[in-house]
Amino acid sequence: MKKQKQAQSLNNNNNLSSEVASPKGRHFLLKAGFWLPILVMALTAVLFNLFPIDIKVQSHYFSDGWRLNSNWLVQLLYKFSNIPALITVLASLFFLALGYKQGHGSARYRKIFIYLIIVMVVGPGLIVNAALKDHWGRPRPRDIQEFGGKYPYEAPLEMNRDTPGKSFPSGHASMGYYLFALAFALKAFSLRKYRLMTIFTLLYGSLIGWGRIVQGGHFMSDVIFSGAILYLVAHLSWHIMKLENSPFYIPKEGGKKLSPKILILIIISAIIILIGFGLATPYNRSQTITLKTDEPDNLKINLKNTELSFALSDSTYISGINRGFGFPGSKSRLKYKETDGVHYIDQELKGFFSELQSITVITIDSLKVRNFSLNIEAGEMSLDLNPNWLMIKDEPTGAYQLNNGDENRNYIFNIKDAKIELN
Question: What fold does the segment set 2-280 form as a domain?
Answer without folding.
Answer: Vanadium-containing Chloroperoxidase; domain 1 (1.20.144)
